[in-house]
Amino acid sequence: MSFNIGLSGLYAANKSLDVTGNNIANVATVGFKSSRAEFADQYAQSIRGTSGGTNVGSGVTTAAVTQNFTQGALTTGTGRDLDLAINGNGFFMVSNNGEKLYTRAGNFHTDTAGNVIDTNGNNLQGYGVDANGNVKTGVLTNLKVDTSNMPPKATSTITISSNLDSSKEINTAAAFDPAKVETYDLTYSTKIYDSQGNEHTLDQYFRKTGLNTWDMYSLVDGRSINDPTKTTPDVTNLTFDSAGNMVTTPAPTSTANMVVNTDGTFTVANWVPGQSKTVGSTTTWAANGAAAAAGGMKLDMLATTQTNAVGGAIAKTQDGNYTGQISAMNVDASGNLFATYTNGQSRTIGQVALTTFANVQGLSPAGGTMWRETYASGIPVTGAPESGTLGNITGSALEESNVDLTTELVELIKAQSNYQANAKTISTESTIMQTTIQMT
After folding, report:
1. How far apart are CA 199 and CA 274, in angstroms?
2. Do 111 and 187 sit in the same domain of this protein?
3. Contact between residue 20 and residue 411 where contact means Cβ atoms under 8 Å apart
């Protein structure tokens, strides 16, 4: 029996060496989770289940090899947009030709078709977006980076927040002339775009006409909105109350192509995009073949105030753009993938999904730092990062192996000592048997 006991100890020590060696070998493997060998003693079953109080036992057996799913350290600033690290609970889901696998290794990249894949060529799973850039949560798909150009978009909405200096004197100069600064008190410009992505400039000039009244003169590319063959500006009358807020009832008055809406905003209607050409001393204007946004450009200036402060634009936004190529990507904590384009625009192109299980110890290792679902693990629960018990995502980062090299080296020494001790048990038993044989 002692031979078998010693032999079982050798097997156990060898298993411990295997597990420790595997941990040490993967100390630099991204997303790797260390394992440990767990042992149990063995007892031979006696007849009728009775053994009395003298049963010594028959050695040791490997009860299980369990994995340690604690968080590994994060390496940030990797310089790669699609390096992703999970901070907290969850796994990335990848698809291997339809088979779902789960991993903590987030070193992803794109293939020639723009699919986001891991180092094994598996497709990262997540949620796509609709035509308006809204994430379609709940419908898992292969995440893909659309590398095509962002198409041009004609400006349809302009929002400007500004202040007109109430301390200004009423302007009594001659008629407004954009070339004469004394005929206006404030000016600023906003870039706008036509349907082909050509850039134009909306110039606005403000002239104080009364204690709480101003005239706003508008030109596009220095031309009249009403008649771009001329330089006559469109005029809008603005009125403010005693607190300095814009009055919208009654509605401001304006020239034909600066339409006043019921909510107090304006619509630049019937604008025809064009360009000016100068030949010698003669400058002519001609349409460029593009179009303005359908329905015109809405101009929201409701946040404009008249107070005793420096006049000027405070904030401006417009929703048009010229053709842009993708220049960079980043991922936020909720797993949203944002693409940034050379035209200064950005948009959501997808969202990474995370998956958790009721019993992660029940997952079956699949190699390549991946696991498979099993009956023991429970069914996968998939959702957006930061929802439920799921962790968050850190972009341009990787989760390191959670192997503690110091601990593993100590385990290596212990396993070696155990192996030597069990070998000594067998050697001693052999010596005793030899002595017994010589006595006979």
Report:
1. 10
2. no
3. yes
| Sign of the four-CA dihedral 336, 341, 346, 347 | negative
Residue with tokens 């057996």: 61
pLDDT digits (tens, 9 = 90+) for 165-177: 999 999 999 999 9
∠ Cα 21 23 27 (to 5°): 120
Cis peptide before 178 (omega within 30 of 0): no
> CA 17, CA 138: separation in Å to the nearest integer?
44
DSSP letter (8 states) at residue 150: B
In a domain, 161, yes or no: yes
Q: What kind and span of H or E run contains 410?
A: helix 405-439
Asked whether residue 191 falls in the same domain as residue 276, the answer is yes
DSSP 249: S
- 185 shares a domain with 128: no
Q: What is the DSSP secondary structure assignment for residue 64, as one 8-state letter?
A: E
For residue 232, how many other CB atoms are within 10 A of its CB?
A: 15
What CATH number is associated with residue 264?
Answer: 2.60.98.20
Burial of 64 (0-12, 13-18, 19+ CB in 10 A): exposed
Q: Does residue 373 sit in helix, strand or coil?
A: coil
Picking from 326, 406, 288, the residue whose alpha carbon sits closest to that of residue 81 is 326
How far is 90 from 388, CA to CA, in rounded Å? 11
- Torsion sign (Cα): 245, 249, 253, 254: positive
pLDDT band at residue 123 using 50, 70 and 90 as cut-offs: very high
Dist CA 75 CA 407 (whole Å): 21
Residue type, 110: T
Asked if 360 contacts 70 with a C-beta cutoff of 8 angstroms, the reply is: no
Work out the pLDDT band at 52, boundaries 50, 70, 90: low
Instruction: Give the domain extent around 367.
Output: 74-132+330-341+349-399
Q: Where are the strands (E) in 289-434, listed by range?
A: 297-300, 305-307, 312-318, 326-331, 336-341, 346-352, 354-356, 364-367, 370-372, 381-383, 392-395, 397-399
- Both tokens assigned to 178: 């954009």
Q: Let me know if residue 144 belongs to a domain.
A: no
- How far is the C-alpha of 158 from the C-alpha of 323, rounded, in Å? 19
3-state secondary structure (DSSP) of residue 45: coil
Angstrom distance (rounded) from CA 440 to CA 429: 17
52/170 same-domain check: no
Question: Domain check: are 161 and 308 in the same one?
Answer: yes
Task: Provide, rounded to the nearest whole percent, the portion of the chain with pLDDT above 70.
Answer: 96
pTM for the predicted model, two decimal places: 0.75
Domains held by the chain: number: 3
